[in-house]
Input
Amino acid sequence: MTQSSLPADIIYTARIIRTANPSRPTGTAIAIRDGKVLCVGTLDECRSWGISNVDTRFEDKVLTAGFVEAHSHVMTGMYHSIPYVGWFRRQMPDGTWVDGIKSTDELTHRIAHIAENTPPGESIVVSGFDPIYLKTERLSRHHLDAATTLHPVFVFHASGHLATINSFALAKYDIGPGHPAPGVGFDDEGFPNGELREPAAMALASDEFRAIGRVIAQPDTLVHFASSMRNAGITTATDLGAHLHQNERVLTTTLEATSNPSFPVRIVSASRVIGSVQDMPASVEGIHKAQQQSNDKLHFPIVKMVLDGSIQGFTAVIDWPAYHTGEDHGLFLLPPEQVVDFLRPFHEAGLGIHCHCNGSTTSQVFIDAIEQLLKETPWLNHRHTITHAQLITQAQMKKARNLGMSANFFVNHVFYWGDQHREITVGPDRAHSMNPCGSAERMGLQFSFHTDAPVTPPGHLHTMWCAVNRITASDQILGEHERISVDRAFHAATIDAAYQLHMDHMIGSLEVGKHADMTVLEDDPYEVDPMRIKDIRVWGTVLGGVPFPTPTT
Ligand SMILES: [Zn+2]
Output
């Protein structure tokens, strides 16, 4: 970078600055040089560096260390081109809002409407559908057949682990009675009901499943993803389960997009551990190559493994007494006995491992695998992370802590699916212990939280609100002993997430020498009524000292 392309030295003043740096937690001015934090303190302290360029646009606002999202997906940008059919009203990447779908009838109508404007035979793909809220019968091919018999329909569920297709699509792919693929659902008569569980089954509907993949790989989608993140005040976001190390074209377009000064977020791309054990060394090599091309806004410090499904889809693998309803489709997505072999090359290469474990059985498999790897190859600073860790037990947390592991809780579940977990999936006892931030804090297990966007909308004000209040969608407290303070929640949303990404020396707090990345808020999460934290308006962000307002600002 030449000297002239660096932003000029600048001081921003604010109502208050929350740094997430425990030795200097607040200030009212921040001085920035070369895009980095030069000083946080009073205006006079900042001026002592000889900077006269004082920008007062944030005088009435609250600046915080930029929010870090340690588990999200570029796929979040897909809602720009794939219709959203979820339960909750939701903001799209361009800042507009789409109303939620409250019944299967409404879904049928929305798809019928799309069908009217789609040539016969052409695929209809919609996303974000969340069947667990519907009191009516489970979505099946019949509901979708009522929308159209002339198009293959693919309804991608919010969990990302399930899809429902119509009879036209079943016929198109020859999925009939007795189809042997695991994950194909059948009705009482033994005929496929349209449900496809987990990627191997969803991939049977190859054109439609691939269409989602194509949208995700479009350069546009990355830009819409980045906009969604900026709108939510996120300054570093992850794409967990990417394939950049194997896809030269997507790597090139991602490098181009992220090196544009107007790109509003830092991206952490985490390659998916998938395929066969023999492929893993080549994966490591691909990631090392990508690392050599990384820039300030694109990083490759970790990999992602997925070990089971979702709790609300009954595909997470959980211990005795299993699911409260008896429904149990628990599915290991990789053979548990091979987990150590899959992970060894990454561990030995010094790459952090984030493993999706929704169920308690799965958390145990991952924790045991890390214990084995650490015996083989000690690495004191590994920070391997159990991501979701929703049903992790007290004993598992202690063992994870002893091994130097970390947890990334899916605390948004308390609000979005807490009622369903108490009444349907895991029952009244375990539901209270889900995403146990309070216990983790008490025993000293390092943790952060995530939204898993697009599974839930991006934004850490909502995760903080969930962790502090633990209120379900029906307004009840779930797990009062797992609530944490605003201060603890703020650290989980910033510096502790950066730690899990091996990036806390660069981002996550406003400390001298780190990137000047900030979230700009209209109110102070520490000062408002804790029940209002999620409603605080996001003005936008500051990335490397450069302001990035949202479109509605
Ligand atoms: Zn995810």
About this structure: The first helix runs from residue 43 to 47.
